[in-house]
Amino acid sequence: EKGGYDHFMLKEIFEQPKAISDCLRGRIDPDKGTVTLGGIDSIMDKLVNANRIIIAACGTSWHSGLVGEYLFEYLAKVPVEVEYASEFRYKEQLIGEGDVMIVISQSGETADTLAALRAAKERGALVIGVVNVVGSTIARETDAGVYIHAGPEIGVASTKAFTAQVTVLTMMAIKLGLSKNAITIKEAKKLISELAKIPQKIEEILQNTSEIERISNLFSYAPNFLYLGRSYSFPVALEGALKLKEISYIHAEGYPAAEMKHGPIALIDEMMPVVVIAATHHTNDKMISNIEEVRARKGRIIAITTPKNDEVGDLAEFSSIIPETMDVFSPLLSVIPLQLLSYYIAVNRGCNVDQPRNLAKSVTVE
Ligand code: M6R
């Protein structure tokens, strides 16, 4: 049932080209520049007129929500707030008619996410689900929704659900951007043509994992890791750190790269591997300065970058080169080496990759 792979997690990492293709199938038309999402057709008017969007989720799904924030704000020019579902449910809920909540959940059964959705509905907001498991409680209770169609995810560490969630949020943001005239058909065509190429580009990354395996072997016994990224790469930094924590039990923190100088820089010395996600071109110069700051303190730089960002590649001690894409799609590629890094390190450390200690696949308790 693991299809020849040692673990479900590895199988699911390698399934991502197919999962993203399945997620895109029948929904995008690169020639026409259109996105079709049947599950939100009936509420599209409300989404177009929304004052703001609140995204609520937990864990990895919260990270894909953070990517969603950048996507909706950039492509559809709508203000977005991303909330931990567990925080939203117990705070002053300033949400009501005219607001839209998007809840993101792989399992569709996460207790805190379900509670956030119920609270938002009670106050009159429209709630849209981005869910994997068909017919799950969250899928049933939302007003509308888009399934991510990633197929069953068995490994406790979420991998293909993350990339498929980001894919759905991307399609939603393009669709909303078009409806709000925030992007033109010409821009949509360009975006959608590139989106259609993402499965193939993920495949390219998966075809050559030797460098990331080598890096994993060198750092398997590091006690700490720091992950840095800016813009679209910031949520990816958080996701990379979470993957490493949950399956390898190495302490890891993700930070927006510019925040480093407000505290975490004190941690950097020759014992500290720093994973730098330099995959967005518009932040490249700033990432180069951050890399120099880490190098000056003898931190060990592992860069996730692209051929065009060659200066990053030159400065970093190690680098994993991913294919070029538009900045908006970069999380779909840059997260892949991070999933692999955590996987290989966890295997080297003899950890139970698919069922890490203390964790359950779906968290149905508060
Ligand atoms: O099923 P959900 O997407 O609602 O689950 C949310 C989190 O529990 C989940 O993403 C968790 O953080 C994963 N173990 C991360 O790999």
Please explain how this structure is put together.
This protein has 366 residues and is α/β, with parallel strands linked by helices. It is built from 14 helices and twelve strands. The chain has helices at residues 8-14, 16-24, 44-48, 59-76, 85-88, 111-122, 137-141, 160-179, 185-207, 210-219, 233-248, 284-296, 310-315, 330-348, and strands at residues 28-29, 34-35, 53-57, 80-84, 100-105, 126-131, 144-147, 224-229, 251-256, 273-278, 300-305, 318-321. The strands form three sheets. Strands 4-3-5-6-7 form a five-stranded parallel β-sheet, sandwiched between helices. The chain has a five-stranded parallel β-sheet with strand order 9-8-10-11-12, with helices on both faces. Strands 1-2 form a two-stranded antiparallel ribbon. Helix 2 runs parallel beside helix 8 (160-179) and helix 4 runs antiparallel to helix 11 (233-248). It binds 5-amino-5-deoxy-1-O-phosphono-D-mannitol. Residues 58-61, 105-107, 110, 113, 156-158, 242, 246, 362-363 line the site of 5-amino-5-deoxy-1-O-phosphono-D-mannitol. 5-amino-5-deoxy-1-O-phosphono-D-mannitol binds at residues 58-61, 105-107, 110, 113, 156-158, 242, 246, 362-363.
Radius of gyration over C-alpha positions, nearest whole angstrom: 20 Å
Spatial arrangement of strands, main beta sheet: 4-3-5-6-7
Largest sheet: 5 strands, parallel
Q: Any idea what the shape is?
A: globular
Low-confidence stretches: none
End-to-end separation: 32 Å
Series of secondary-structure elements, N-terminal to C-terminal: HHEEHEHEHEHEHEHHHEHEEHEHEH
Helical proportion, percent range: 40-55%
How large a portion of the residues is in β-strands, by DSSP E? 15-25%
The strand count comes to 12
Structural class: alpha/beta
Small molecules bound: 5-amino-5-deoxy-1-O-phosphono-D-mannitol
Number of helices: 14
Question: Average pLDDT, to the nearest integer?
Answer: 96
